[in-house]
Amino acid sequence: MVHEPPVVPEPRTVPRATLPSRTGLLVFQPLKRRHCAECRRGPLPLLVLEDGVPRCLDCADLGHLVFLPSGDTALTRRSREESVLSAVIVRFNRRKSRYERQGVLVEEAALARAEQRCLADAEARRRRRVRDARRRSAQDALFTQAFAAEIRRLFPGCPADRARAIAAHAAERGSGRVGRSAAGRALTEGAVTSAVVASVRHLDTPYDRLLMSGVPRQEARRRIAAAVETVLRGWTEAGLGSAG
Question: Origin, by domain of life (predicted)?
């Protein structure tokens, strides 16, 4: 009868089934007090397991590396790309029964090069944001001008400065107002008229005071409807020649 050789369990120090997928070296943050099996120093904040026994970073020839904590994915990736020698630091989470990454050990010069690459990227992103903001500002200025011109076309009696103010308010980026809607972007008559009506309602009638006094919105609109219509009719019938 052939006997199977006994199965030797792995050291309990590292339950390998719980280790994160990796390429390269692993360094552990121990939960218990550990001493180096070679130089006897300890307790060790970080250790390497060789043949199931702990060794300090110096004895494992990793003492010259510097610690980069987790958090900046781009910096971590680039530091490992730049570093000839690197290691992943893990710590056992008892509640989750698994090892979790705490950071990496990389060469100091490699970390410096990676930081320069990230800074260059950050500067490039900043410049792109500035360019984008300038482009959006120019687009918004052109759109506001077109919106104001459409107001003056539909309501030639509307003063020019009032038309510009209505257009700027309605077309403010991120406001959600009518000027930012699809109809507003298309300069439809309905959207432009809605912007003008809203302005007249708030600035040329007692609408806001009615709301503050507790009058329901629909009732307040009913009360000031005639005043709004009077202003709009005046602006419509004034004619281009009398526009201010």
Answer: Bacteria
The position carrying tokens 């800074």 is 119
For residue 60, which of 102, 103, 26, 109 has the smallest C-alpha distance?
26
Query: What CA–CA distance (Å, rounded) separates 161 from 184?
Result: 20
Say if residues 50 and 121 touch (Cβ distance below 8 Å).
no
101, with CB counted inside 10 A (0-12, 13-18, 19+), is middle
Best CA proximity match to 170, nearest among 188, 26, 153: 188
Contact 89, 27 (CB under 8 A): yes
Each residue's pLDDT tens digit, 175-230: 888 888 898 889 999 999 999 999 999 999 999 999 999 999 999 999 999 999 99
H or E stretch including 26? strand 25-29
